[in-house]
Write a structure and sequence with these properties.
This protein is of the alpha/beta class. It has ten helices and five strands, in the order βαβαβαβαβαααααα. The protein starts with a strand and ends in an 8-residue tail after the last helix.
């Protein structure tokens, strides 16, 4: 069972998502939070696998809550799926940098939200290529873009794999594109994450764009 925590300051939104998640045979709702502070506390006490996190919340917003969850070693296995009103919301980039595994818009179809939760729970990054490119392009224009580890230490093959990860391909698609086995592709991704000291594929996407390995909009 995938243990899901819902964090949104709108009760109607939380309740509707809770009913949806509870209807899935492989998921259960382990808590609901009305703000980021509650989300962090419940992530610790309820041992959630995935936190569906709204960006804009009182007391502590979704970005701050995501950052605290990502920085807590005891919550290393917790994945954050960010909820946003628009797919061009500049706060999404901040959330991804903070440690979120992906984002979805609030008007997502029910079946797509459940699929998104499953994807994030499985360790994949959920990033729509179009919106992600626009968001990263905007982030690169900011003067305070934080420095990140670059792909210089990677082998040529690993750089190829990182490029495909940044374009939104999963391990199976990467394997097909490079003529590898899915297991080999997965191993490459794991090694890249280790070399660049990141905990999530979403962070690999950020590094690929910020380093110039992948150009926004290409």
């Amino acid at each position: 069972m995938i243990r899901v925590l819902l964090a949104d300051d709108q009760m109607l939104v939380r309740e509707s998502f809770a009913m949806l998640v509870a209807s899935a045979p492989d998921m259960e709702v382990v808590g609901q939070a009305a703000n980021g502070k509650e989300a962090v506390e419940l992530a610790r006490s309820a041992r959630a696998d995935v936190v569906v996190m709204d960006v804009r919340m009182p007391e502590l917003d979704g970005i701050g809550a995501t950052r605290l969850i990502a920085a807590d070693e005891d919550l290393a296995g917790v994945k954050v799926l960010v909820l946003t009103t628009y797919d061009t919301d500049e706060h999404v980039v901040e959330a991804l940098r903070a440690g979120a595994s992906g984002f979805v818009v609030k008007d997502i179809r029910p079946a797509e939200l459940l699929a998104a939760i499953r994807t994030v729970a499985a360790g994949e990054a959920l990033l729509s290529p179009g919106p992600t490119s626009r968001l990263i392009a905007r982030a690169l224009a900011l003067p305070d873009t934080p420095a990140t580890g670059g792909p210089d230490a990677l082998s040529d093959r690993e750089r190829q794999v990182l490029t495909l990860v940044a374009r939104g391909l999963n391990n199976t698609e990467i394997a097909e594109s490079l003529g590898l086995s899915p297991l080999t592709a997965k191993t490459h991704v794991s090694r890249i994450m280790g070399k660049l000291t990141v905990r999530d594929r979403a962070q690999l996407v950020i590094i690929a764009y910020e380093s110039g390995l992948v150009a926004p909009g290409r």
